[in-house]
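Q: Can someone sanity-check these two? First one:
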Amino acid sequence: MPLNLTLPEVVAVLPLLTVTLTAMLVMLMGALKPQSTTGACVLSGLGFAAAGLMAATEPVGVQSTEIFGGMLKAGNFVDYFVMLFCLAGFLSVLLSHTYVRSKGLAAGEFYSLLLFSSAGMMLMAAAADLVIFFLGLEVMSVSFYVLAAFARSRPTSNEAGLKYFLLGAFATGFLLYGIALVYGATGTTALEGMGIRASASPRMPLFVVGLGLVIVGLMFKVAAVPFHMWVPDVYEGSPTPVSGFMSTAGKAAAFAGFLIVFAPPLTAAAPQLRPVLGIIAALSMVAGNVIAIAQSNIKRMLAYSSIAHAGYILVGIVAGNPAGNYGVLYYLLSYALMNIGAFGVVALLESGEREIAIDDCTGLSRRAPALSALMSIFMFSLTGIPPFAGFFGKYYVFAGAVQAGYTWLAIVGVLMSAVSAYFYLRLVVVMYFREQPEGIVAQPQPLGMAALALSAAGVIGFGVFPSVLLQYAVHCF
């Protein structure tokens, strides 16, 4: 079947093309000038910024339209996620500049993998067909496997890459087998066609099992219980900027898949999956928050926190109503800002091969007042304290759950948010209310501090003016 490209279709995929071409250029620069860390960093940042601006200049109010023969979609939903991925990538590039140089990592390969993983995420968000979604997922996943093990001189990094690869390949098998079953039940992998045929024949056990396996594969990517055991070791062993990027942009891409797969036409044919997902959301919130209390390593604490936040966002998916969908979009962007910021502070504090423990930050406010203030903002937002963006993210997803009749799930979320205050605010207490004149201190890193300041500004700005982001989210559905 011939594919006749039109100018609007090419314009719609310009952000994806920009990121992909930038990745190739960065890889070439790494081969020609392997010592040029700054050049690779600047080029990568420009690529992310250009792609994000292209998505931001799309007119507001454009609903999803199929392009490229029904394989991809364009519209505000895709643009929103493209902007989120590019923002997360841009911040990660700034935070990783000094980290990559100080650790002696290969800048060309590092930044090109960061860009390629973002290209895979964009394919996932724009997918109108499960085959395209799977291709995007694999591009992202393979890049992450390598990035997790990128600090080859550290045994923990090698362990992180191996664990992520083995368990990720196992989860991919579930996803692919689910796609095969869904295809066998409906005769198509196109999402729109699947919805039409599933609605016409609602009693299809093969379709329900296939959709359930697809959801299992997605739950691994968002680190929901019981598919979460890889998260602490992978986040702890990976280079810290990579951990921040994986926990935010990678999670957002998987949740884009949830929003696509859990669209009403598909879930109407498998209503029994929604309560099951509600139980998984509750377990994720409980397990993530309770186990995080016992952590002494900051990266492991943030890893278990990531599991809990996956549960919070799943609450909006379970709700399945407009309020829940808007809440998911708002939450994903606010979570990207505050979690990249938190991992960014850890990256600036790290020196040598030793991981940063919570007690290492004792008295940090006197040695690094700006860094302590920024970390406190991110901890307050992750807890859900107003007027920061994290509070409104939780409010919107919980409100959607109440409207959908899942009040019990919202109650679990509120209670677990209260529990999370212990381990988030413990770090603030250690920094500000305990004395230790000597200890770790961050070296001056202008690009890293600029990224943290930008993240903090977003956390505060979207918290004080949540309607700015929410109004755009309304146009995505």
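And here is the second, same format, sequence then tokens:
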Amino acid sequence: MADRSYLDWPFLADSHRELADEIEGWAATALPEIALHHSDDREVDAAVRRLVTSLGRAGLLSLCVPAGYGGRTPAIDVRSLCLARDILARHAGLADFAFAMQGLGSAPISMFGSEAQKRRHLPAVARGEAIAAFALSEPDAGSDVGAMTTRAVQDGDGYRLDGCKTWISNAGLADVYTVFARLGDAPGAKGLAAFVVEAGTPGISVERIPVMAPHPLGSVRFDGCRLPADALIGTPGDGFKIAMATLDVFRSTVGAAALGFARRALDEALARSRSRRVFGQRLADFQLTQAKIADMAVAIDAAALLVYRAAWTKDTTGGRVTREASMAKLFATESAQQVIDQAVQIFGGLGVTSGVTVEELYREIRALRIYEGASEIQKLVIAAKVLDA
């Protein structure tokens, strides 16, 4: 059983501790009934659909949207999102993925959408009846959002959308995409806008991308997609602000998912070191093993402090937490990579055997150091905030 002492930290309230028990209960009963191991895209998609449906029926996706549209709290509670991702990632990477994308894909609507957009899309997301996606990155515009070339132009009483997005989670699976595109002639980040695009819109095509930890990921192309006027989220030019405000919330949760993977790796390493005997004694009796375990435990607690500090700050101040979220994302993902690597080392040859939990964790963690802002970008963001202080 993973350490739960962090639940008593002052960053969390009694409602969060109750939520932790609720999520643990769902994982214990629901996950054994959902096939999480898969060999092709159809099986991956089917597993994600089952997870979203189950999470919705259990009421856990209500954490992803505000009250009034199927949510539990007036605004999205970042500590609840982090707690959910921390616990779900410890149990199953795909469960964390299914939960997280419902929040990330719909957050621009939750925070900036019109009343009509919220009522049309958010309740279905919260019930697990519609799958959401966040389409920001492009082949030549990942970290450099201002280099985006996907374009929306006014066309009669609506818009025409053309371009390509890539590395999009839930590509081909989503029912609704939040898509960022260039609108008008303003340069760089100033010329961006955000749109709600329903999957059935003519002109959308998807090409899946095979990745090391099987998840539904792909490129989404828009060829003359006709969007109604009310597809625009906010106002023209708001796109960069909407994207950054969304990442301000969800970068902390990426750190929380990394925490969950690291916690599971430590649990696996502890069990292995206690049961494996070499040279007449347990692995756990060797000081070299104890040093590894100490380093792993310290890294996990330090990452948890940064993650829940960032989430608490966002929930209590309501303002931007770019510095805190970037620190949490950077440290938690980088340290989780090291923790999992140490767990693989403790397992020895078994640790690189396909299907062993630490091997799966090794593949799961790698992408977290890249998506929603690579570690190098987080360092630039943090440095800019510190220098401007």
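A (reply): Looked at the second one. Residues 239-275 form the longest helix (37 residues). The mean pLDDT is 95.
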